Amino acid sequence: MLIAHVRLRSSRTPGPNAPRGQPVAADITGAWDRIDEAKRHLESSAKLATTDDSLAYVALQDASRNALTPHMQANGYRATNRPGAHQAVGLYGEATIATGKAKPDVDAFDRMRQVRNRSEYGSIIGQQLLATDLDHAREIVAAVETSLPPRPQP
Fold it and tell me: What is the tally of structural domains in the chain?
């Protein structure tokens, strides 16, 4: 995907704050496995929402990231393991699936990432924010799922 490559940039892009990514072999089976994991995280988040807002939020944010990552995987990209990798995943999502109905949900990804980071330092997550962002995470997972190539047969 040319547009994803342009937005994500290669790991050779200069500058300390440039999002990092690299081309890899496409892995459709692995992508579907990650989608299944993202769905489990959504279920866990919904269950935890009644008892632990912070942990429920971690699960929903992981679900959205774990949905965008397999889209990258299916299309031959991955974020490198370095600072800015989660932001690069969000930029990839904006460049590839933030169209139509999924746009506001993917656009919320970076804010969700920041909320999750702040929650590690004592920021309180309320029920309204949790419910809103759980809906965003569900839509991100659904958008990625519908955009993947068919699941390979075992």
Answer: 1
How many C-beta atoms surround the C-beta of residue 115 within 10 A? 17
Could you tell me the CATH number of the domain that includes residue 127?
1.20.120.330
Element (H, E) at 78: strand 77-79
Low-confidence ranges of the chain (pLDDT < 50): 1-20
10 Å CB burial of residue 66 (0-12, 13-18, 19+) is buried
Q: How far is CA 43 from the centre of its chain?
A: 16
Tell me which amino acid residue 71 is. Answer: H
| Phi, psi angle pair for 80, to nearest 5° | -75, 160
Torsion, Cα 73 94 117 115, to 10 degrees, reads -140
Average pLDDT taken over every residue of the chain: 81
Domain that holds residue 34: 2-8+24-147
Task: For 77-101, write each residue's pLDDT tens digit.
Answer: 887 777 667 677 878 888 888 777 8
Give domain status of residue 54, yes or no: yes
Give the integer Cα–Cα distance in Å for 112 and 130: 10
